[in-house]
Amino acid sequence: MGRIGTAVLWAVALLLGSGVSAQTLRIGVVGPMAFVQGEHTWYGATLAAEEINRAGGVQIGNQRYRIELIRVDTNEMTSVTDAATAVERAITAQRVDFLMGGFRSEAVLAMTEVAADYRKIFIITGAGLDGLLAGRVDRNYERFKYLFRVSPNKSSDLARTSLLLAAEVVQAVRQQLGIPRPRVAILAERAAWADPLVETAGRLFAAPPPQGYGAEVVGTWRPSATATDVTPELTAIQRAGAQVIFTVLSGPVGVPFGRDWGRLRIPAAPVGINVEAQQETWLRATDNLGTYVATLNSLAPGVAITPRTIPFISNFQARFRQFPIYTASGAYGALYILAEALTRAGTTNVDAVVRALEATDYTGATGRIVFDRTHDVTWGPGYTTGLGVQWVGGRMQAFWPRNWQVEGRVVSYAGVRPYELPPWVVEAWRR
Amino acid sequence: MLAAILVNGLVLSGIYGMLALGFALTYGVARILNLAHTAFYMAAAYALFFFLGLMGFAPAALLSALLVLGLALLAYWFFLEPLKEYEATVLIVTIALALLLQEVALLLFGGHFRSVPALLPGFVEILGVRVAQQALLALLFAGGVLLLAWAFLKGTRLGLSIRAAAQDQEAAELLGISLSRAGYWAVGLGALLAALAGLAVAPMATLEPHMWMPPLLVVLAAVVLGGLGSLPGALLGALVLAFAEVTVVNLVPGGAFLRTAVALLILVLVLVLRPEGLFGASFAEER
């Protein structure tokens, strides 16, 4: 073959090569990959990418695109700066087309600034701060229209659900223990996101029914989110005579809380938010002392929120041998939402994709996802609300929503069982 | 409330005391401000977690303590002794060592929270306060370790030479005490105390790679409060800070997150009124 023939072959190979790369969508999956939150973001996205690619890829116009995931370790648990740098590197060096993931609100705030600067669509799947979208997308649409959130519900909606869970426990104390005015202790980590929840909870618990819960608040304890010992706080709560502990814990303090509470058999039932208790590893992490702890969660074994819930959990467990946390279901849903939006848009043009994303109406594993005007996931019956789960008999089981009456309808999922008061709470307070 | 403060304060004092004594020994004798001290404590806790998967508690604890001891002596031999004249460099090297241990733990065990089963489950009531039996065991263990360390330092020739080196290095050298040998012993003993504290805390705490940071702050404060280089001072400093923390939680529940901040405020106040700390040489002089 002569020199000209070789050159032609090279040119053909290059053209073919460029054709192949043009038919690949590069999705940056961002998160703290050494931690379960980031790991599950990656797993959720991987499962969705494998399913989509197996089904032939994403149809955009008259072309089919394969999804290629780029793992972006943000180190966001320890450094917000690292997180922003990782996202910038993903955009400029790794040339990702879209971004999804993120866990720590402070870090996601910085990462989404970078994404907005580069006009990259970023679908949040792990951080709950209201202000990630509210006050940004609605007030400065042109700059922040690229940001969307699939999971979790924003902090103020998480507050609504966690207070509904607390109502179940207050009611259980009232009915099963015969205490007309249960005493509630609030244990909330010292963090900005927890402040409004503490204030609202305090007011709501103390207010008389039907607006409030008719309970007595015996005090509010605010340990650090990274405290490694909450024995003094629990001793004081026990001394205050509380029957219920309303927890607002997203940090690692959730684990020492579960251990110390179970070890000391504190006669007060914990309920609220404890992110550590949402994970499959909870009982192992607490040396099996965290049994009976109740928390807000997004999935529970055997509970079909939508027809997609059980297949998602089964496929995830078959592929990764773990029970998915909310970042996994979020990332899984985010990739499908993005793929469907790209198909609807018929182009990868960013403005067209933003418009298509805004029109999302997707039923995922954790509920129906419709974005509101701030590009946030809508909360409420018929959309996504979360689940109340409790650790009983060595496993996580759901206790809410169960016959939840709201807006003229009753919400209940198959597999949801009644809440169980810890036996030592019953023993200490039964009259 | 007084009972709760007393009981919880004592338990916390035992743990802080072990850590502070080891830190003070290392500084007092080898003149090394070892910021990796609590990283050794973390390493011991993780080693215990790992070895417990392979063997019983006693051999796992022994192996963990020996591993950390070996690690500390190697670090001293390779990095710290040759550099100990350069205080700033030593600080940087020890913090680098701590971060290295943290990253190794992260690599080997991930960011997951781990736990070590308690030797003594359940709780007892003391003065109406519920105390985990494991915490009482840790307190007894800490008390025993501190007494043994004290007996060693007070009752043996080697202990005498270590104390002499801690008190006045030049005079000790004139009396024929090998500062290098005393340094090795002090570093070894300090690391061993950190490892034992880690072993005592592991069945009560949650293991995660960053667990070395919060106690480091308290230990630094305790030894400065007690008087930099003073061994009894370090113990007293630990006691004061532990009780300050527990008192804050009990008296100001809404400000429980301030427990360490209030303890540090006490440190600042003491240093303003008595710059040399409760015992020992002035911090300003030491610098």
UniProtKB/TrEMBL annotation, chain A:
It holds the Pfam family Peripla_BP_6. Residues 31-377 form the Leucine-binding protein domain. It comes from the Bacteria. Keywords: Signal. The keyword Signal applies. PANTHER family: LEUCINE-SPECIFIC-BINDING PROTEIN, PERIPLASMIC BINDING PROTEIN OF ABC TRANSPORTER FOR NATURAL AMINO ACIDS. Belongs to the leucine-binding protein family. This is ABC transporter substrate-binding protein. It comes from Thermus thermamylovorans. The lineage of its organism: Bacteria, Thermotogati, Deinococcota, Deinococci, Thermales.
TrEMBL record, chain B:
This is Branched-chain amino acid ABC transporter permease. Signal peptide: none annotated. It is found in: Cell membrane. Keywords: Amino-acid transport, Cell membrane, Membrane, Transmembrane, Transmembrane helix, Transport. It is a multi-pass membrane protein. It comes from Thermus thermamylovorans. The keyword Cell wall biogenesis/degradation does not apply. One of its GO terms (cellular component) is plasma membrane.
